[in-house]
Structure formats: structure tokens, C-alpha cells
Amino acid sequence: MSLNEKTINRSIICNIVLIIFISISCKKDMNNSTNSKVVIAHRGASGYLPEHTMESKAMAYAMHPDYIEQDLVLSKDDIPIVIHDIYLDDVTNVATIFPERKREDGRYYVIDFTFDELQLLQVTERFQPSTGEQFYPNRFPKNKGNFRLHSLQQEIELIQGLNYSTGKSIGIYPEIKNPEFHHKNGKDIARITLDILSFYGYKTKEDNCILQCFDAKELERIRKELQSELFLVQLIEFPEETKQLQHFASYADGIGPWYKQILDKKENNKWLFTNLVEKAHELNLVVHPYTFRHDQLDEFSTFEEMMSVFFFEANIDGAFTDFPDKVVDFLRK
Questions:
Q1: How far is CA 57 from CA 134, 209, 296, in A?
Q2: 78-104: average pLDDT
Q3: Which residues are identified as catalytic?
Q4: How far is CA 123 from the centre of its chain?
Q5: Could you tell me whether strands 171-176 and 270-273 are parallel, antiparallel, or unpaired per DSSP bridges?
Q6: Which CATH class is domain 3-85+151-332?
Q7: pTM of structure
Q8: Is-contact 149 81, C-beta < 8 A?
Q9: Domain extents in the chain
């Protein structure tokens, strides 16, 4: 056998192993959750470590959620970066490293930097750029540690690698951020994201991936024009959108409303609810509201009370949370 033939054979074997690995990592183990309710690690274990860092995702994985979320924004060289906003200046030291690279509005945009440039930035706890004040003062201290930005590909490989080494089947829950902004800048973030997801084995509703977006036109485009067969969730921000469930059901498999859109009022010490969850279920849409935080209870006295009201009285199907360990523990009780 020639050296060239040996090289080709090794390449074929490596590709077969990769395909088997991806197939194992992408299939959802329905026994992964303690019941039919799902837990989504919002930006990772963001209640404990800076959001959307690899360290936050590894910690979240160890807490055994059903899914880990990835917010996605494109870099200048079209690499999906896992970051919550199109801006850099409220979670990194970009103003110190690249002070001259801000736009006229004073903001620093992910899309203006290459992946290699983004790797030079340090990530910290979210803060107000105008004052430097940390958004959640009792979380991980600002400007401590050595956290970095990373790509969607890097995070998928982390999660799939952990699925392989642990025998678990934790899914991914990417969100396409501000597609209109990307289109105005000549970039098709949806198409790029779908190509990457497909490469890693995420192609259908059975492949342990839920894709979400606030932009209804773009999510409908993903289903109808780009012909994605993934499980799609339409995120809901504004009150008027809660009246568009019939339309959402024509292309999406679920909705992700702000949790307060489910609450109506409290009478005789008991919560009453809007008809949002009921109407969604009638249309076979799952309901995954955002965002449940142990350090931001608002109307509730304890986190356990909040969880009980939403999961077992409002009958939601899943929850985005900065504290995945606490929701997992609650559902196991």
C-alpha cells in the first residue's frame, strides 16, 4: 500500500469516527431530564460566572440542564461569536484595548472586529459602560479572572465532547441575534449558523438543538426559505406579539415569552394567569419563558415559590435561568 493510500484510508477512518461521534452527541436522551419539564442554562451558569464564557458553559454542563444557550453575533470575518449583544463594551475591556474602534454612537460592535482581534479581549461580568457599575453586584466580581470570547464551533465541540465523555445528552439552544442588523451590514447570520449546525449534526427536530430568534420574519425565513427542519422557538418581547400565536404556529414549534407576560394578577394570595400558555398549548407550541433569576425575584418571596407557580400552576414546559442548578434541584424534589 502506498503512503498516499495509507493517508487516504486514515482520513476516511477519521471522518467515519467524527460522524459517529457527532451522531452520538446530537441525539436527545429523553431520560436526561427528571421529567417532561426542561431547564435551559441561560448564557451558561451566568449567575455564578461571567455570561457566555467557556467556564460558565462548563459549570452549567455539570449542573445537568437539558439545554445550554448560545447567543450569536457575527465577527467581521463571519464567525459566529457567542455573546449576548451586538456590542462589546458592556462585557469586555474593548474600550481599553481598541479605544479608537468605536462607532459614531460611541459603541463598539462585534461585527467590526475579526475573530483574532476578539480573542485579545477579556470578558467580565456585565456592567454599565457609562458608569462602570456592575449590573448584578453580588455575582462574580468585575474584572477578575481571565475569561475570553469564543465561537459557536468551539462551544459545540465542548458540549459534544462532554456528552461523549460523560454519556449524557445535553442539547444546545442557539439564538440568532439581531438578524436585521446583520443584513444591513451585508451578512446572513441565519444561513451561516445553519451551515455550522448542520456540519455538527444538528439538522432536524430530533437532533438535540432548539433554534430561537426574536425576529419573526427571520425565523419564518429560516423555516420556509432556508428550509430548516430544526425545532424553532419564536421569542416574544412585546405584548402585542402574544396575540400572534396562530401565525407563529405556522412555522415555529414553541414560543419564548417574557415570564411576566404569563402573569395576570394576584387575588386572595393566589396567582391568576393570562391565557398565553393555554392558547400556545392548543396550537401545539411549547412555552419556554425567560429569565428566572435567584437574585431577582420581583413579585415572589422565594425562588422555590416562583418555580412552583410557573411550572405547576401556569404549566410552562421549560425555563431559561441564570441558575440552572437551582431549577434542576427544584424539579427533582
A1: 21, 16, 21
A2: 98
A3: 42, 84
A4: 18
A5: unpaired
A6: alpha beta
A7: 0.90
A8: yes
A9: 3-85+151-332
